[in-house]
Prior knowledge:
Layout: H1 2-15, E1 20-23, H2 43-49, E2 58-62, E3 66-68, E4 83-88, E5 97-99, E6 101-104, E7 107-111, E8 114-117, E9 131-132, E10 135-136, E11 141-142, E12 148-149, E13 152-154, E14 158-160, E15 175-179, E16 185-194, E17 197-201, E18 213-217, E19 229-232, E20 237-241, E21 249-252, E22 258-261, E23 264-269, E24 272-274, E25 281-292, E26 295-299, E27 302-310, E28 313-315, E29 318-322, E30 325-333, E31 336-338, E32 341-345, E33 360-365, E34 368-370, E35 373-377, E36 382-387, E37 390-392, E38 395-397, E39 407-411, E40 414-421, E41 424-426, E42 443-447, E43 452-457, E44 460-462, E45 469-472, E46 475-480, E47 483-485, E48 498-502, E49 509-514, E50 517-519, E51 528-532, E52 542-545, E53 548-550, E54 559-562, E55 568-571, H3 573-580, E56 599-603, E57 610-620, E58 625-632, E59 637-642
Parallel strand pairs: 1-2, 2-4, 3-5, 4-23, 5-24, 22-25, 23-25, 24-26, 25-27, 25-28, 26-29, 27-30, 28-31, 29-32, 30-33, 31-34, 32-35, 33-36, 34-37, 35-38, 36-39, 37-40, 38-41, 39-42, 40-43, 41-44, 42-45, 43-46, 44-47, 45-48, 46-49, 47-50, 48-51, 49-52, 50-53, 51-54
Antiparallel strand pairs: 6-21, 7-8, 8-20, 9-10, 9-21, 11-18, 12-18, 13-14, 14-17, 15-16, 15-18, 16-17, 19-20, 54-55, 56-59, 57-58, 57-59
Amino acid sequence: MKKLIIILFLFLFRSSLAVQYYVSNLGSDSNNGTDPTTSWQTLSKVNSMSPAFVAGDRIYFKRGDTFSGTITLTTSGTVSNKILIASYGSIYDPYPVITGFTTVTAWTNLGSNIWESTNSVSSLDRFNIVVVNGVNTPMGRYPNSGYVTYQSHSGDTAITASGLPASTTNWTGADIVIRKNKYTIDRGNITFHVGNTLHYKNLYADVPTKGFGTFIENDPRTLDVQNEWYYNVSTGKIRVYSVGPPTNVKVPAHDYAFKLSNKSYINIEGLAFEGFNRTTVYLYHTDHISVTNCTFTNCGQDAVNSTISSYNVIQGNSISQSNKDGVVIKQASNDLITNNTLNNIGLFIGMPQYNVESAIYVFGNSCTVTYNKIDSVQYHGIMFEGTFLNISNNFISHACIGKDDGGGTYTSSNDSGTVLSNNIVLNVVGNTEGTPDNYASSVGFYFDSHSQNIRVENNTVSGSAGAGIMISNAQNMIIRGNTSYNNSVSRGFTTGELRLQYIMFDPLKNISIRNNILANTTTNMPVFAIWDAIGNSMLGYGISDSNYYVRPLNNDHYIYLLNSSGTNTNYNLSRWRTYSSQDAHSFSTPKTFSSTNSIRFEYNATQFNKTVRLDAKYIDVKGNVFNGTITLAPYASSVLFKDGNTTSSENK
């Protein structure tokens, strides 16, 4: 009993004296690590000491240094004594780098510009990321760009494509990438190849659609472009196509930087992560974990994945070149994703093993996604599903670069209590490569079938391939105070600044559309469109009123109805009121013009007021006058019309 009391006393005493530990490239694992002059050297030493860490301990990595491997923590912090993993040293030095990469240094020339690593370089079962001379580089593929059209399929087990080089190459053992429809690109393994038919396995979603496209990868016979690569999992060796010996080739040796399970109250701050094959920071069944002010580059799949979590915080991070998703939050409650910058997410078609590719994906309850900046993502900018989510003040540009029929934001669930407000979405481009369609249909804000109980307020969208705001078979939604300007740039099927669709038997009902600005500077694109594909009442959607329907180059026929028989009808506001008994207090174009030279669109995607200098006096769609300048509130926008010269000398 006395011995147990002593052990308990020592444990409590140790817990009350949190220790600071230091790790640097010039340290030694034989040191005690408790001072910068007696620092440890490796992550292996940190991991070996992990069972001895207690709440309140701090582990610091030296700025400017690089550390290879995975960090293992077996201890949680407490609400008053969190465990901190951060950096030390001069603020002028870069963050310490935690790397999953190993550099290939020895090569064997196999001829025909094919080089193979002399030794095994990894024990991983696949490579999701390879960097050559600092550049995230895709694996080899056939054809080198684009798709081969397939003419038929057998369920989801085989496709037939007449364009395959069947007489010269048998692709058995390679991987197949299939564009199954506009929104699904899947990857599996070819089990055998007969003639122009490829049989495959391990695909995950949907059935192929004839007339779409396919390509081959993960085979040494695809290597014919500088720096293309192939990883042989059976030998652990990599091959690279290069006109000379390959240089500075980095391959992943580790799947994760952190893999925390059932842990609480840990802060990860001010570190740089690179080169992990799967998820860089993986949090499973955790709470009160924060990942703050870190940089993530060249991630094999996700930068951060938090599954079954609560009160986790992902804040102030920079994420770029992530080959699948950026931040993934699943089965979460009260998680916060804020002030992150995410660029170039999932841009290599066929690299991720699984589908989706969103910059941010959140599935949970009472989570907040705010003040994030997203630019260039294969599919959705922000995909969400859950209840009482707050998605606000985000800036999203260039979503749907690799797929189509997606959105800057996207949902298809009952998101009761969710609010989407003050977001700015620009240039959702859509990609029709590998499809028989020449017109992209991706939209700014996409509320797909089954969407319900969402409030959409004071958002801005412009430059989408399809509609600005799409509401498809949704229910119980408030669409209020939004600005949708110059969308439908693809001139394809999903046109309209605001578009309502009846395309399935889920009812479209209880949609309140008020105080929105729907503006387009073409002569023929509708600003408000309703498409009924199944013969419902086209006016059963709910109510619309106090909106601004603006088409200054053609102030007529800007409300468009297409019924199930294919008959379309166009209305101006007056005729629309008579037909629908809607929009009694709505407004039409304040001024008309013969060209777009007198029309301006301004937005403010910052957290501060922004003053824009104007070249003349302008009015907005509500008739407010701006004499030489306009000041925009954070995450606000304005459509302006020239209305004479400035009258104040200081604005000239």
